[in-house]
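Your task:
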Amino acid sequence: MAHKKSTMFRAVNILAVEDEEAIRDMLSFSLEREGHRVFAVPSVPAAKKLLTTESIDLALVDWMLPGGTGLEFVRFMRANDATRALPVIMLTARTDEDDISAGLDAGADDYVTKPFSPKELHSRINALLRRSQAQLTSPSQITVGVLQLDAAAHRALANNTPLELGHTEFKLLQFFMEHPEHVFSRSQLLDKVWGTDTEIEERTVDVHILRLRKILKPAGADKMLETVRGAGYCLRVNGLN
């Protein structure tokens, strides 16, 4: 299906962290042609410095970079209040599913493998901005049974006990709490939480469900996350018995 140029988003400030000059130039040219403002830098230190001087709306991050890896830089952004919710797409030639999962676990929202076309990348940027806008319009504070979640503060509690959630587990729990008692298949969760174009297998959902249950268990809330045989997963409001 041919991609149509989107006009639904305002021009955004995009940080592109890429050490290959030819790719940096391509990113700057293609994204500026779409009306965006691009800050292209070759290293992690340069990217960290730029974050202190510019207001960035979305980041494109290569995996292998001078001064640190892309994974380390994404973790750095997720650990800071100012950039914790910044939409992030990783750009890399690594295509192994374990590498993709590692990038998403570090806090990336999407993953684009090289080589890629500018049209594909812009489509993925629009999809991520669309999801980010939907999250902004969602309630910031949600309570479901013994679970409490504050999306703005990136904080979650179970039975008043703070939960140590990774970026992906937090997004997964938030989605379930926004749709309690609703059964979602693995493919639906991939679409809604990871994004429609994410190149990972459905079994990755099972891995993150297991991680989320393990995090919820000490607070006695793991049974709220129910496996519905042949259908998928559901967050039950009264699933503690």
